[in-house]
Amino acid sequence: MPYSHILFDVSDAGIALITINRPDKLNALSGAVIGELEQAFAEVTRKPEVRAAILTGAGEKAFVAGADIKELEALTAYEIRTLALRGQGIFRAIETCGKPSVAAINGFALGGGLELAMACTVRFASENAKVGQPEVKLGLTPGYGGTQRLPRLIGRGRALELLLAGDPIPAAEAYRIGLVNAVMPQSELLDYSRTWLAKVLANGPVALALVMEAVDTGLSCGLEEGLRFEAAAFGLTAATEDRREGTRAFLEKRRAVFTGK
Ligand code: COA
After folding, report:
1. What pLDDT, on the 0 to 100 scale, is given for residue 1?
2. Is residue 177 located within the same domain as residue 83?
3. Sign, Cα dihedral of 37, 39, 45, 51
4. 60, 135, 224, 225: which is the annotated catalytic residue?
5. Is 242 helix (H, G, I), strand (E, B) or coil?
């Protein structure tokens, strides 16, 4: 499927590099960009040869500078609500696609940009990155999950501080409060993301998918229910060929080779 607003490239290691490609508009999320992100992650989800994804922005200035403010201007209240529900659904599909995703934040990640990054499994940022939820400065609330994922990631108090003041924070501060997992020079961002994913992908694919599902499930239910899900996942992985291979490899003092079965 051809793309016009994103670049989609899969490496031999099975890592899809998805680049939002509107650098002249700081990669703002137009409806068309969001639609192509939906397609791209449908490919990631569907294709067995794609095992992980890196999401980044074209150019050196921005990951994504938010929803497209010009497009929002032309919409009615009801249309904006519909847009939010659609975007939320797509971001949720990214979050729950069963394969690890890295947001490689190469510059501004504002509003919908930070919301998109928060839907990814982890966030790595370049030193020049600035992240925040500035919607209140436009008289708006976040609409793609910011009020929900930000407190889950960094806690209620810090989330409200960012959401209410609306001021972006630099990468180093985002790292300090746990909003991004690591910070590095921009030139190292993609290599670092690939290296981290390669380490992850050496592990059992079924176990990886179930760990992500268990964490996600646990964050939206109580402890008892979360623990039951964990026990079921543990039992399920115990029945896989990968578990047998993993244990055998340990006993034979060699590296395990997993097949995802
Ligand atoms: N939607 C649509 N266009 C956007 C955009 C957005 N969210 N963010 C930036 N752009 C466009 C600008 O309109 C400008 O286009 P133009 O050259 O046709 O005028 C271009 O991208 C470059 O942006 P500019 O503002 O000139 O760059 P800057 O370096 O001076 O400022 C930012 C960078 C990120 C501080 C500034 O662009 C900004 O505040 N953007 C909006 C962030 C925001 O509020 N996002 C939440 C939206 S709900």
Report:
1. 64
2. yes
3. negative
4. 135
5. helix
